[in-house]
Write a structure and sequence with these properties.
Blueprint lengths: L1 H8 L1 H4 L13 H17 L6 H12 L5 H9 L8 H29 L1 E12 L2 E9 L5 E11 L2 E9 L2 E2 H4 L1 H21 L10
Antiparallel strand pairs: 1-2, 2-3, 3-4, 4-5
Helix pairs in contact: 1-6, 3-4, 6-8
């Protein structure tokens, strides 16, 4: 499961993890997903770029489609309301950097090997929120259903959560964050995240 986990939890690559031959969809969120897929695969398959160049290009592209603030808030849970604006900014930056450092290499490798089919099902949650679905097939033949939770901001749909076979991305680290906050406080938690001191989320 490590390859799949690495692919999905490399935050800059999360929305545009390894896709292949997705069908054209009618809903704007699914059309945007296909656009994201095409753009990132073009980077991943560019043999003229180094691994670090690929990571940077994908990160800059995904910044337009991932809501890091909402992802961070959901991952921390209730204690998020106790963070000051400065602490929130510092945490978001540290969390993003930690995820990239932990998973980016494996994510790129997975993007070259796995196959994904965008599924026709979609859930409209109201208030400009929708869930889209895909099926990931690993090189070993295992299949996983992945749902991407979007909300609309202007003409763009932004990802605020990802679920793999029903398991939520934002809950994977929540227990660690809650324990850290109790033990070290908010600033200590930010320092730990900045030092990449959390365990990898290999259980998903």
């Amino acid at each position: 499961m490590k390859t799949l986990t690495a692919v999905l939890f490399a935050v800059p690559v999360a929305i545009v993890a390894p896709y292949a031959a997705a069908q054209t969809q009618q809903h704007p969120a699914q059309a945007q997903l296909q656009q994201n897929i095409d753009a990132v695969l073009k980077v991943v398959r560019n043999k003229g770029l180094s691994e670090q160049q690929k990571i940077k290009q994908i990160e800059r592209y995904a910044d337009n489609y991932l809501d890091y603030q909402r992802i961070s808030a959901l991952a921390v849970g209730l204690p998020w309301k106790e963070f000051s604006p400065k602490q929130k900014t510092e945490f978001i930056s540290a969390f993003k950097e930690m995820i990239i450092s932990m998973y980016a290499h494996s994510a790129l490798m997975g993007a070259e090997k796995a196959q994904v089919k965008v599924l026709p099902k979609m859930v409209d949650n109201g208030k400009n929120k929708v869930d889209t679905y895909s099926e990931i097939v690993t090189p070993s033949g295992k299949k996983y259903e992945v749902s991407y939770q979007f909300y609309k901001v202007g003409s763009v749909y932004k990802v605020y959560n990802i679920r793999v076979d029903g398991v939520s991305m934002v809950t994977v680290y929540r227990n660690q964050f809650n324990d850290l906050i109790k033990q070290k406080g908010i600033d200590g938690t930010i320092a730990t995240v900045r030092a990449k001191g959390l365990k990898k989320a290999e259980s998903l």
